[in-house]
Amino acid sequence: MEKTTEGICEMCGHHVKMRQKAHIVSESKKSDPNLLMLCPTCHLMFDTHLKPKIFKALTQSGIKGLPKSWETSIYEQAFKASQVARAKQKDLVKTARG
Predict the structure, then answer these.
(1) What is the pTM of this model?
(2) Which of 46, 43, 39, 42 lies closest to 15, judged by CA?
(3) Fewer Cβ within 10 Å of end Cβ, the chain: N or C?
(4) Is 44 part of any domain?
(5) Is residue 43 part of a domain?
């Protein structure tokens, strides 16, 4: 895989000035076979729409052991992580107040 950011998006095929590394499986190694070089638009679509749809389709087909990171979009994952962090913060404040 090319090391420069300029090049062809591996999803849409357009030549772009900036490509981003998209991890196919977030829980896996950050190495070449697990990366796609995508334009920013395709990277966003891949993480927010394609992974959850692929997860749902493959799960409905009976395939098991899919990456947990595909189950929901990156925005849903961030929202859930934020809720957990806020709950922990509230607990810390309550504990400190005694």
Answers:
(1) 0.71
(2) 39
(3) C
(4) yes
(5) yes
Q: In the block, which residue shows the tokens 């697990």?
A: 34
Residue 71: φ, ψ to 5°: -65, -40
- Asked if pLDDT for residue 97 goes beyond 60, the answer is yes
CB atoms within 10 A of CB 57: 10
Beta partners for residue 7, in sequence order: 16
* Number of domains making up the chain: 1
Query: Contact at 8 Å (CB) between 9 and 37?
Result: yes
Q: Is 70 exposed, middle or buried (0-12, 13-18, 19+ CB in 10 A)?
A: buried
Torsion, Cα 81 75 68 70, to 10 degrees, reads 180
State pLDDT tens for residues 53-88: 999 999 999 999 998 888 988 888 888 889 989 988
Distance CA 37, CA 35 (A): 7
